[in-house]
Amino acid sequence: MDLFLNRLFDGLSNGSTYALIALALVMIFKATTLINFAQGEFAMVGAFIVLVLATEQGVPMWIAVLLGMIISGLAAAGIERTLIRPFDPSDHLPLVIITLGLFLAINAIAGIVWRFDPRRFPELFPSGNAVTIGSATLTWYTVGVVVTTFATASLLSLLLNKTKIGLAFRAVSSNLESSELVGVRVGPTLQFGWAIAAAVGTLGAAVFVANPVLQLEPTIMIRVLIFAVSAAALGGLDSLWGAIIGGIAIGMVQSIVVGYTPIPNEMALATAVVVLMLVLIFRPSGLLGTAQVERV
Fold it and tell me: Does the pLDDT value for residue 60 go beyond 90?
């Protein structure tokens, strides 16, 4: 039982982190029906900005996170304006190629600037254990990750449902052509989506690498992005709360299923890909996603 609880807590911690990154993917998909393959690299650069602010400039940790979110959001807004907006949003092939190019370029630039030497990331949450059951421990890090994830999803939900820019964003994500006809400024609205997604991604990366057993380096988010994409697809690519459910489910699969079966730990990534394939085959819209209706 103690082993099971430890794996359960690990799955909850990892899954909540995947859910945070999945929230960023959902924001982009809701705006463009496009998976941003550079989202993990945006998040990684944001985490490096947080690290620089906290360790080299002496900025308090959570203020550094907020500043990193703002900086990465502004950078993503600039990228949307210069590289994404000139293309037809209904033609996905050029946009996919651009996001793949951004993935490679940002990773290379981060390697040049910060090198590939792992760096210790400051702690975001108190150290130690919040709850101890036998030999199973629930750390404050896990508690902090879960609270941060649900708080972020709640704030995004309020933003989309209770504000004017949120209404415009939902209109564009529902029907881009009709939104233009009723006067919604589609370009700035999509730019807002890219900025919010980058900011949330930076928060997710900072929370992820704040794990005491991890260190920050330019390739750290590549693996996480695959888990996050699987989580977003499982929950529904246009559902914020679906991303939470999908992320926690993927975390549990990684921790419990892999832990209790002969599958080696090195195959944990493959299990996420298998889950993604099964979702695409049997329920393409995900658990809470909106099914696409085609009228002919």
Answer: yes
d(CA 282, CA 288): 14
* Distance in angstroms (rounded) separating the CA atoms of residues 17 and 171: 29
Residue environment code for 35-66, b if the CB has 16+ CB neighbours within 10 A, otherwise e: bbbbbbbbbbbbbbbbbebbeeeebebeebbb
Q: Supply angle C-alpha 252, 13, 192, rounded to 5.
A: 105
- Give the Cα-Cα-Cα angle 16, 144, 169 (nearest 5 degrees): 55
* Mean pLDDT of the 90-111 span: 88
Please tell me what DSSP assigns to residue 134: T
Q: What mean pLDDT comes out for the span 216-233?
A: 89
Query: 10 Å Cβ neighbour count for 78?
Result: 13
pLDDT of residue 74: 95
The percent of residues above 90 in pLDDT, for the chain, comes to 37
What's the CA gap between 293 and 124, in Å, rounded? 43
Tell me the C-alpha to C-alpha distance, in Å, between residue 181 and each of 32, 47, 166, 168, 186.
Answer: 18, 39, 18, 12, 10
Query: Counting Cβ atoms within 10 Å, is residue 11 exposed (0-12), middle (13-18) or buried (19+)?
Result: buried
In whole angstroms, what is the distance from residue 175 CA to residue 142 CA?
A: 39
Q: Which amino acid is at 120?
A: R
pTM score: 0.90
Q: Please check whether residue 234 is in contact with residue 276, taking contact to mean a CB–CB distance below 8 angstroms.
A: yes
Arithmetic mean of pLDDT over the chain:
86
Supply 76's token pair: 């993503």
Tokens of 113: 């600037």
